[in-house]
Write a structure and sequence with these properties.
With about 120 residues, the protein is mainly β. The protein has one helix and seven strands, in the order βββββαββ. Strands 1, 2, 3, 4, 5, 6 and 7 form a seven-stranded antiparallel beta sheet that branches.
Length: about 120
């Protein structure tokens, strides 16, 4: 499914990160969120959920819709955005194989790679 509008005319992709956020307290069993951030040249930060599914020796990646991450001050540069996200508990890594304007990628043979932070 093609998702137009992620990068409006004249706006470019500056940086894209996959994230892992440990956001549920241990007293209720713990848990985490996974997804991606996309920083645009107009300073807007977008977020979407992304997860991998493994079945019959193959891995498929699925992604939700992009939405603006309103907690972020638009106009902040790439280094500041990365630092801002890390300071809020996000582990950042390389982007998923799902294209920016798609909602799935794969199937690929084998298991998904373990999440590796870039810091």
């Amino acid at each position: 499914m093609n998702r137009p509008g992620v990068l409006p005319a004249g706006v470019e992709l500056v940086q894209r990160w996959r994230f892992l956020l440990d956001n549920l307290p241990e007293w209720i069993g713990g848990g985490f969120s996974t997804g991606e951030f996309l920083l645009r040249s107009d300073g807007v930060l977008l977020r979407r959920s992304v997860a991998s599914e493994h079945a019959r020796g193959q891995t498929t990646w699925r992604a939700g819709l992009w939405s603006e991450f309103h907690r972020f001050s638009a106009g902040t540069g790439q280094d500041q955005a990365e630092t801002w996200l890390i300071d809020r508990g996000y582990d950042l890594g390389d982007p998923s194989p799902v294209a920016v304007n798609e909602d799935a990628a794969g199937p690929f043979p084998g298991l998904p790679e373990h999440f590796r932070t870039r810091r």
